[in-house]
Write the structure tokens for this entry.
Amino acid sequence: MYGFINVCAITPQLKVADAHFNAKNIIRAVEEAKDAQVIVFPELGVCGYTCGDLFNQSALLNGVEQAVADICSATAESRALIFVGAPVVRAGRLYNCAVAISGGRILGVVPKTFIPDYGEFYERRHFNPAESENGEVVLCGQTVKFGTKLIFSAQNIQNFTVAAEICEDLWVPDSPSIRHAKAGANIIVNLSCSDETVGKAEYRRDLVKMQSAKLICGYVYCDAGEGESTTDMAFAGHNIICENGSVLAESELFKNGCICAQIDVDKLAAERKRMANTFFSANDGCGYDTVYFTAAEGNGVTRDFPKLPFVPASDEKLRERTELVLSVQTSGLKKRLRHTGAKTAVIGISGGLDSALALLVTRRAFASLNKPFGDIIAVTMPGFGTTGKTYNNSLKLISCLGASARTIDITGSVLSHFKDIGHDPEVLDVTYENAQARMRTLILMDIANKTGGLVVGTGDLSELALGWATYNGDHMSMYAVNCSVPKTLVKHLVGYEASRLGGEAKEVLNDILNTEISPELLPPDKSGNIAQKTEDIVGPYVLHDFFLYYAVRWGFAPDKIRCIACKTFKDDFSAQEIDKWLKNFYRRFFSQQFKRSCVPDGVKVGSVSLSPRGDWRMPSDASSELWLSLL
């Protein structure tokens, strides 16, 4: 469903050279992994990797072939794609192979390419390396494809394509998996028997993780464990499942068993298409044979998704990410200030999160340039909707950060403007609201001109996505430091700076963090509190940032986003609420592109940016109907 493929890596109990015993345990493991669509067992797991010269015994090889036949017969009702490791004879030569099985038939046999013959390994004593071209082999009475250039493709599930390599193949510079991925395999399986030594588990994990990142693939690594001979080596059953650089599941060392995860092959395929010009090259896939099979259908979405995809879950990573983002923002603004020779930086301070972050970043840039904080001109411009709380917080924040404060009440100017254009101030419509935003921008621009300065924008990525900005009002600035920072991350950046600065700055920033998000363009309520709450109008930012991440970064379809959002936020929002705000997201995202087509410069800080000069190029007149029809 939606491209999620259930994969398992299983290390069963094993007896060296007892193919009958091992086959029984493999069959039992397949039966227990009833929801799996891909099941991977260890290298030479039908007989054991540590058979030594027993590999030259016909009794062992015949027993292995019978065991493979038994596995095929016992799994005839299973539509999982199963990989077992076995020695296979072809044209009088012995090969270390991955045997692919589904629906009771052998789909193909993949021999190991790189045969180690160093240190504790002496495989060349028994096994031949794979040949360069595919051929055929007769195994268990079936004539099947034999070679390294095999793609196993589900004919009933799009993008479900699998290829295999074996142990050492991963550890060499020219891994077969490189060719597999470029030939179209979205999932790579590795049947391995990697002995355990000090420090090897960390190296192995990093190797699998980075191979999955480099190849934009799912990688299922299945290692041999307890049961192999310990004459000279010990095996820990270190199984790892990764997806595009992330570890989805990992086994405990020295504990045979099963790990499972869901790999999103649609996401992988989309990412490869995005990078097609550099990922693929001429002649990719030449010499490959595609073997089709009917895959088992998935059982729904079981993997978890973070509610805050832009915000790291662990405190340590969050601190690192926060400092990095602030440093990137600071570096961008610092360069622009130096390049333009700006004497001042001019910022409109509203008492809200975004303007607080812009001021904090500007202060960092001035510190780095050894410029006096007093040259930061922070302007608070109370209007019809300004509350006492936000006004006072603006002044407190400006004061404790050492910037120069200016207060300019825009009420009179806006009323005069209403008179000029013939607008009734009792009509609280879009003209009423946007005239205030544009008046504030006019003031900031003119102050910047007057002081030889540069207007620092405050709008964030989430507002750009929703078009929640007044065109040529808060939409415009001379440099936009927050333009690729989503609202859910803005909160953490401000909270981090509050803790770092301490004192009065911490107190006022924490108060700002606890203030309702609002443009404050409509009059307060009778008690003087904020009446215009942004999230009541456009929807919760926690949802919109979730939608934005999966729609723009990964290109998920709307129905897939709805599916994972309903699972992720099941305790927070009803399905109806998620549906409502997701539709609103798409309507606004498409209709407001014209604002993003002419946004000011601003530095990219993360994997999602909506700059028309950088990551996102979209026609302003594109229709959203196709996307909305999927909801």
The longest helix spans residues 315-340. The chain has 21 helices and 20 strands. The mean pLDDT is 96. The domain at 315-628 is CATH 3.40.50.620 (Rossmann fold).
